[in-house]
Amino acid sequence: MEYYIQQWAQLLSKTLGEALSPEEIMTKIEIPKFTQHGDLAFPCFVLAKLLKQSPQSIAEQLAVSLNHKAFKKFEAKGPYINAFINRKEATKETINRILYEQEKYGSHTFGKGKTITFDLSSPNIAKPFSMGHLRSTVIGSAISHIAEKCGYQVIRINYIGDWGTQFGKLIAAYKRWGDEAAVKRDPIGELFKLYTRFHEEATLDPQLDQEGRFWFKELELGNPEAHALWEWFREESLAAFNRIYTLLNVTFDSMNGESFYNDKMEAVVTELQNKGLLEASEGAMVVRLEDQDLPPALIKKQDGATLYATRDLASALYRKQHYHFDLSLYVVGHEQTLHFNQVKSVLSKMGYSWADDMEHIPFGMILKDGKKMSTRKGKVVLLEQVLKEIIERADHSIKEKNPELEARRIIAEQVGVGAVIYHDLKHYRRNDVEFSLEEMLKFEGNTGPYLQYTHARGCSILRKAKVKPSVIEDGLEDDPSWELVKLLAWFPHTIEVAFEERDPSTVAKSLFKIAQAFNHYYAHTRILGGAESKAKLGLTRATILVIKEGLRLLGIQAPVEM
Ligand code: ARG
């Protein structure tokens, strides 16, 4: 599509005696809402002043003087001049390009030679994997796939929350009330219970908080008992998280969590001190950020314990040295915006201009009946259970639709998990998302199963045809195929926008439109047999290639039957 915009802009510019440059014209070209108004439109208002004529008469004159082989005709419509692309040529061109490039279609090279680190998922050990961490995982991995498609090298880092005062509290709680066998049976559930109990009882018994602080201090000092407990909690938690990652089909290049930076923190504190940035405030050490309109960043507590911000400074420095990133993205909920602003500001003050390449990618919450799903007070929805339940339900509905299906269990998993991922990614990431299993699993409407089903339907047409065209000789001209081809032609541009906006929902929306257009096409066309059968099968194959690749970018599998 960009090709046609360019061609037309050049033609217009030439015809207008270069009154406007092709680049200026390109920014003004619009896509008409209705097909009967053509494929591209140029508003002539901008020319009225320059040419001292009414936009209507300019449009009329242009309609008769323009001529280009890529376009079938030009029509004046009020103050607009509309261009109708030569469909036969364009459909052939687009379909052949997709059939030739296959899964590479939509790739870009502008990221070549550049590296992006992604901070994503990053759940906290000894706590359930929350809905927020699910969002970080699926949004982060989708953006990382999109970045790869744009040519970037990507490093996915799971910054596990495995350090901090909460582990002092957990050790204190375990030492008071813990039961080894119970923890072994249900590690996360039991540890989380202990943690919750600690908070409840600490309101009545101030002694507890002191114990918590004591144990964290011991942990930071390397006390073997504290360390062994922490190690055990960590291992059990990672095993549980890994089950979720396997289901979601996500992988990481680094699992360096907060504790990895324990021996790298003193250096940060010293550097801050040497650069004259560290100040004592009420016994704690802080970096003042008033000039940035931010509250001070807490670097060290009164008792010498380091903090979340200190660890993020150390990890940012490490990542820059280690990965030489050109961009460093943090996919973390919007409640941490202040934290990331502080970390970036401190790094700038330290003289690191690359702090500007750090970007917080915030996202909204997952809501249930309009309310936040909380991990506090033991009131949690366990993700693993949610995934298992949705797989069961998917299995059930597939059985009803297609009782003969062979690998049903595997497909149910792909459909169930895909439904959860798509439901998240179809919303613009900053918006909150209402959680609903029923909504996610619908086979109609804007859902994962609908896209997968459309893909499987396309595959089944090709199976029946027993041919898999890899090139077509003639293009198509009818409205339904043209609508579909136009959407497919926009796909590369969609990828670029999705990357620039760090927004997977751009891809989701485009796939949904493609699936709708394909189903519309399918309903209006006899694809198998009849005239133009090769071109129609070519278009079918091009469509499923794009849907499959788009789903892959979102982290969703595309079964060939379901
Ligand atoms: N573990 C943190 C939490 O659950 C998220 C970590 C985000 N990444 C970071 N570099 N701070 O809130």
Automatic annotation (TrEMBL):
GO terms for cellular component: cytoplasm. It catalyses: tRNA(Arg) + L-arginine + ATP = L-arginyl-tRNA(Arg) + AMP + diphosphate. Its main location: cytoplasm. Its EC number is 6.1.1.19. InterPro entries: Arg-tRNA-ligase (IPR001278), Arg-tRNA-synth_N (IPR005148), Arg-tRNA-synth_N_sf (IPR036695), ArgRS_core (IPR035684), DALR_anticod-bd (IPR008909), Rossmann-like_a/b/a_fold (IPR014729), tRNAsynth_Ia_anticodon-bd (IPR009080). This is Arginine--tRNA ligase. SMART domains: Arg_tRNA_synt_N, DALR_1. Residues 451-562 form the DALR anticodon binding domain. It is an enzyme of class 6 (ligase). It comes from Pullulanibacillus pueri. GO terms for biological process: arginyl-tRNA aminoacylation. Pfam families: Arg_tRNA_synt_N (PF03485), DALR_1 (PF05746), tRNA-synt_1d (PF00750). Keywords: Aminoacyl-tRNA synthetase, ATP-binding, Cytoplasm, Ligase, Nucleotide-binding, Protein biosynthesis. One of its GO terms (molecular function) is ATP binding. A motif ('HIGH' region) lies at residues 123-133. The gene is argS1. Residues 6-85 form the Arginyl tRNA synthetase N-terminal domain.
